[in-house]
Specification:
- There is one protein chain.
- This protein has 507 residues and is of the alpha+beta class.
- The protein has helices at 46-55, 68-72, 93-106, 156-166, 180-185, 193-196, 224-229, 265-275, 294-298, 318-322, 342-349, 372-383, 435-456, 473-478, 482-492, and strands spanning 60-61, 86-89, 110-113, 128-131, 138-140, 147-151, 168-169, 203-209, 215-219, 240-247, 249-250, 254-261, 283-291, 304-312, 335-340, 357-365, 392-398, 420-428.
- A seven-stranded antiparallel β-sheet has the order 15-12-14-13-17-18-16, with helices on both faces. Strands 5-6-10-8-9 form a five-stranded antiparallel β-sheet.
- A hairpin with a 6-residue loop joins β5 and β6.
- α8 packs across α12 (372-383).
- The protein folds into three domains: 56-74 and 81-131, Uridine Diphospho-n-acetylenolpyruvylglucosamine Reductase, domain 2, CATH 3.30.43.10; 138-250, Uridine Diphospho-n-acetylenolpyruvylglucosamine Reductase, domain 3, CATH 3.30.465; 254-474, 3-Layer(aba) Sandwich (Vanillyl-alcohol Oxidase, Chain A, domain 3), CATH 3.40.462.20.
- InterPro entries: BBE (IPR012951), FAD-bd_PCMH (IPR016166), FAD-bd_PCMH-like_sf (IPR036318), FAD-bd_PCMH_sub1 (IPR016167), FAD-bd_PCMH_sub2 (IPR016169), FAD-linked_Oxidoreductase (IPR050416), Oxid_FAD_bind_N (IPR006094), TAT_signal (IPR006311).
- Belongs to the oxygen-dependent FAD-linked oxidoreductase family.
- Residues 1-35 form the signal peptide.
- It comes from Azospirillum humicireducens.
Length: 507
Amino acid sequence: MALGLHSSRRNFLVGAGRFAGAAAAVRLMPGSAFAAEPGGAYCPPPSAWSDLAKAVKGGVLRPEDPFFADVCRPNNLRYGATLPAGIARCASAADVQACIQWVKQQAMPFAVRSGGHSYAGFSTTPGLLIDMTRMAGAELLPGKDGLVKVLGGTLNSAVYKQMERLGRTITHGRCDSVGAAGFLLGGGIGFNMRKYGMASDLLHATELVTADGSHVKADADTHSALYWACRGGGGGNFGINTSFTLETRPAEAVTVFNLTWTDKLPTVLKLLLTELAAAPDDFGSKINVTIPSRQEQCDKVPVSVSILGQLHRSNATLKEIFKSTWEWIDWSKSQVKENIPYWEGQDFLTETTFPYYYQEKSSYMRAADIGDEAIAAMFDWAAKMPATSMPVAFKFFQVGGAINRVGPTETAYVHRGYDWLFSVEANWWRPTDSALLIEQALEWQQRFYDDVNRRTRAQGAFQNFPDPSLADWQRAYYGENLAKLAEVKKAVDPAMLFTFAQAIRPA
């Protein structure tokens, strides 16, 4: 979750495809004639697939069809071995409704995908993959004072193009292949979030197909509890969202930058985390501490600290914001572009990713809790990384500002009152990296995460970075909002048609 690899991918995602792919799977119906065959295969008769193909105007792909493997490939190849029995390429809400009716009739598990960037593989299934990418587009709503309607299968790249045409913007991320749905439903982070709030804070309405097959609109006046839940409650929990109506802002000139430090790294990181927390809301950033790959380490490539971000027009200059770290920047590896058109600046910041293997763990921190011992421990853990064939990073996405001016229970996105969203990644490539090495890397990641969280009193986890190894994910993702989310789930999906490994359960 989501609007992005070397060590810096999966950054500001406008990501459900964090904008990150929403996912769901249906529980098998007792006594169904089409329950899984031995070995886990789901085998509706050919006539059932023919019926689905007639009902879904966007078309249905089967494994023998051309491009089937390309369409079903997820961004996280860790889950690429799970191939669907079929792919429904929905082009309308009616197509989505037909899919829901069909999977209930056939007792077929399913998943929903827009961008396919679910970190934990929740947009994969052995059953029916409901592919939303043909249901794409974004348009300005006439007479609605800058409101834009984004269809549920739209990728970030299409959102960017339309926003640029309109001279508008939202809180969005950097990866152009992420889908809008999961990004928005899980919260949605980006360089604008300190100025405008989370992407979900800008959501005025959404339309979705619910478990009973209805196509409903949820906003502050109609289905208000469902609307509340869709503003941070995570993709795949309450239905299949077919559109989002978003508040936009004028796209104005920005200064963009990519700065690197190669010396005094613990001191630099501590100063960045402390000083930047007081930056104006016009400033947005992401700090990367990059740990080189195995080959890079053999080539003596060192660990580095870098920061990517933007500054809207402000009374403060970059030099004033960076204060004591400015003089230590390695300008041979750094770049600043001052006061350029907004969407030209986003071209500088945009990241194009590719499928690979990874796991990410996240938590939220306050700058005042990040002491010298915690910083030293981070670099000690970096030195202990069992190097794989890919670089990794631990990162700090700058939150605060407008995000913290919304109460934790005003929307389903509960993570308010923090300065930094911390994450540590494990990346690898198969078959280059052995199973043992991957196991060691994941163990290192867990121990790094646990130790740093303890030292910084970090809390929670970002639901757009779903982590399959996370203990007590319910509280980590949703905190005090979990009980209300469970009540919404009970109201719209009591039988838990929409379910997956980390799905909210009905109260």
